[in-house]
Amino acid sequence: MQTFLNSCNGGLCCSCQSFQARGRIVSKRAGLLILVGLLLALSVVAQEQSHGSKASAATAKAASIAQRAPESPAEEVFRSTSKGVFVIEVFDNEGKRISLGSGVLVGKNTVVTNKHVLSGGAAFTIRAGKFAAKATVVHVDADHDLAELTFVGQYEAFPMPLRTSESLHIGECVYAVGAPEGLELTISEGILSGIRELAGNKLLQTTAAISHGSSGGGLFDSQGHLIGITSLSLRGTQNINFAHPVDDLRSLESAGSRLNPASEESDPSDILIDFAHAEAAVDAGDYETALKHFTAALEKNPKPLARACIYLALSAVHEMMGNIDRAVMLQQKAVAVCSGDEKACQGISEQAGYSLVRYGRYKEAAELFQTLLIKDPRDWKALHGAALVALLTQNLNLAEPLLVEADQIHPNDYQVLGTLLIVYSRQSRCQEVAALARRLRALYPENEGKIAPYEKCPQ
To answer: 1-26+71-259: what fold?
Structure first.
């Protein structure tokens, strides 16, 4: 697994400590200054009454310094977000409280949480400080494990500002604010350690602790922007926690309000946990455990897109283990079962095609890329994949036009241009080789070492 430094914007270093408080966080820096002030005062008092005035002045000065101490990043985030995070209480039909969770204010009288926080509930309340209100479920997106509630009442707080995932940077400081075990306003500090695709879901991976009851809380950047809804934590691992990015909140607008699924449907959060455990096992090189967790996810009857992603992941594990025939079969299953999201299924088919090329299964790869191009003639990745098959089967005259077309649709892609450079080199088209090499150098100077060998155009 990739390792990241504990660093954040502005040169400040993340301490990755957890802070808990009701309504505020105690500043370590301020506490230290107050302690220094008290020690100064005691020292001066011990020097007889004649120095009493100096003691008073020293104490006052120390207290003044403590009051003016700047806030830590965690304090600033806590202060700006503390009114926007709620405790959510879930009750059954008999009025018995069955679970607790967290929620975040994202609009006027609108709170977002995880769908699994509300599962099995018949009535819900939200509370923050002295404010409490009944809440109603208005939208549920089971695929992304999100739910939206509304409440009635005057609550004086601004909705949390949002920051989508495309602007996030691995290694930046993040802060999880939620209600573990029903404790209000608990904050933990960490870093954004990864952005992963798990079972068809984009998830933010963080070292910020997410305990039981924190599900549905907010993951914030150092400026107090909401970047994700905290969702799950892997037990028995070193700080592997996940949040759904705020990008997924868009899907709630068109989602229905049905909370409790039919018995034959799976809870997506359970599938994500299996998937995440499997990914962690792959990172550790424990492929048998990874297979076990991926298979457990399949047994939970996921929807077609998630099932296709799991087949693709199983294929990758079998490839690592050297079981190529099994990997090919699973690639084909992934393509066959995928439905529900045309763009995502197109990506799965493209990935399967490239894997077949890597396995040397050129015939199957060519058929798959051809199928993709029939559906979408402008699929530049399928064009590139088909060109790769043509290059590797020595059909250079077919490879060239496919690559030129791919470059026209998606200009300046390194893989497309690099493959075209190889084709020109093998065709001994030296002028085209020189011109394309100059273009690649201008676009990708860091890849000089990979470009140079193909400039030696055979005459």
So the answer is: Thrombin, subunit H (2.40.10)
